[in-house]
């Protein structure tokens, strides 16, 4: 299901970085994210809800765009 908050997500497994592009155009990288967390986010019905419950305020991040 398309998200009203999140545009795309990708994962760099070698560096354990989750990259999220939001609908606003902002792009953030979240550090030390396990592959299982990325897989669970991909499978989640609501990416925004998953983000708020399991990613936001739980990982170090940096804005890249």
UniProtKB/TrEMBL annotation:
Superkingdom in the source lineage: Bacteria
Domain KTSC: 3-59
Pfam families in alphabetical order: KTSC
InterPro entries tied to this protein: KTSC_dom (IPR025309)
This protein's name: KTSC domain-containing protein
Lineage per the UniProt record: Bacteria, Pseudomonadati, Bacteroidota, Sphingobacteriia, Sphingobacteriales
